[in-house]
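User: What would this chain look like folded?
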Amino acid sequence: MKKTFIICLIAIVAVIIIVIVKTQFKLEGKYNLPTNPSNPYLPLWERIPDAEPRIFPDPDTGEERVYVYGSHDASDHTRYCGYRYVVWSAPLTDMSDWRYEGQAFHRDWLTGVINEKGVPHEVHPSESLYAPDVVYNPVTKKYYMYAFTAMERDGAGVLKLLYGGDGTARMFVGESTRPAGPFNDKITFCKAGWHDDGTPISKENPPANFTGNMYTGNNPQHLGGFDPGVLVDVVEKDSKGNPTKVRTYLFWGFTWPYAVELEEDMVTLKPGTMKAGDAIIGASMAPINGPGRFFEASSIRKINDTYVFVYARSGPIVDDVEGAPNAFSQLGYGTSKNPLGPFEYKGIIVDNRGEWLRGDDIPYGMSGNVFDWRQDNTHGNMVKVKDQWFILYHRSTGGAGGVAPGVNNRMGSHRQATADAIDVYYVGDELFIKRAQTTSQGFGINGLDPYKEHDAGIVCHGIPIGNVIIDTRNFVESQWVNRNILPKLEGMDWNPLRIHINNTMNTRVGYRYFNFGKGVSAQKNLALVLTMKEEEIANGITVNVYAADARENYGDKEGRHYLIGSTKLTGNTNLRKVEIPVTQNLDQLKGMKSIYIEFSSPTSFESTSLTARGQAICDINKIQFALN
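Assistant: Here's the prediction, encoded as structure tokens.
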């Protein structure tokens, strides 16, 4: 009996040791291809922009997982960034197997928490939660969520007194023993952006012994900790390699960056360590003068001995593409050997507008700066899954879609979480990041399987073609009934890509990339199958399908789009599968290909009434190639 007990005890200890080892060391090795990759990588109805990816062990199994933290564009909120944070995670072994972890924080939990002025916080009905970050401290063995809260003004989505000092905009820190929270074990307001007496930091009222320069405009721009980004840097380990001391750094800011070291409590600002402006970003990243043009979305990582500062850029592109419009939609980066900088601007990681189309790539009838997705803000950072790096960011899917002229259709509450592969490389000891292409693959890196059924909403290219008179785009539109609250309420497999003939001539959507391998046998019949509903107005519209060779790099000219099949819509309003025979250029369908679907109206633009312009012609739910 005693021998049996000892054997059992040894087995238990062995399991504990395995779990401990898993929690301390990241899994290495070759990246596993996901079983069902897609972009957006979460369900199409879910909206988690501002993604901060972190690799943590599952507290119940020890399995390494990627946890995604971001704001929440929920259906019970009229604008972006809702009242709660929710968390999703996926195992490193299959980055398409996403699991809903539940609610991590709710703004009502701030009620009664003592704020920077020493008084209990009162939650305002319009108060929202903006982009958060989460880190793990291996010394305290706790997870810390850093987040920013602010009121809206008149329901317009503008942060109330964002540049003022009435205390309506502030950062807080929530603690948890689990990576998905809830982060309410302890909640503390952080004085980022504030003096100890509760007055705001500004050019006129700067902190003592800070380095750099404060914002020189009409508003102090302290923002109370807007868009926090946090780094826990292990600086000491014991003889077994266990961390015994860390240093923690906090970044934040809107149009002007701030950074500071935190005390061991992970909340208190360490006196004399605050930096601002050019002390962090240097001349190369200055908001006004340099190509880096810091705007918002501070996010910080450490790769080997290099600190990487990722952020959203603003202003015209002066280092990338001459003549291209403002870069509000880009994530840029800078590097430094010091955790608080100054960081040297290195380039752009991703642009959520997609590819800049040039030459023959510009659709017929369009000119100037043409990108293949609508512009909007972005926020995110990198994660290394085994030996493959990815950049996580978000894209806008608009408000109401292809609307009539004069309707302002911006981001609303429709931002989706997206990801694409990147390469991190060195020239000597200097770190660089190869710019990502925006694709439909998400965490896939070898192309989508054309013979699997995919959500049509993973489209990454959507532009009107012809005589464009309004700035609208086709987009992924979900049904907004009980959306974004709890997955168990969904029970719905209808998340269509709604196609609008924006100018009543042509509209085109595209997917990068499908991998056709060694090609299609001449003895097989190939068809593109669309699961869709048509509107009666679609009767007579021609659907053409084109293929193009994959680009090697962002910005490469894509080359000739060759026709592979076509059909005509009939205006059938029933949900059905429409087969488009692929009968042309079959010998070209090898390897990685972009696929474009063009909807061409037989009606001329001039002869169509104003009310008909921009009408939806069909909803597409699924897309798949089929061999017979």
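The two ends are 65 Å apart (CA to CA). If you want, I can go into more detail on any region.
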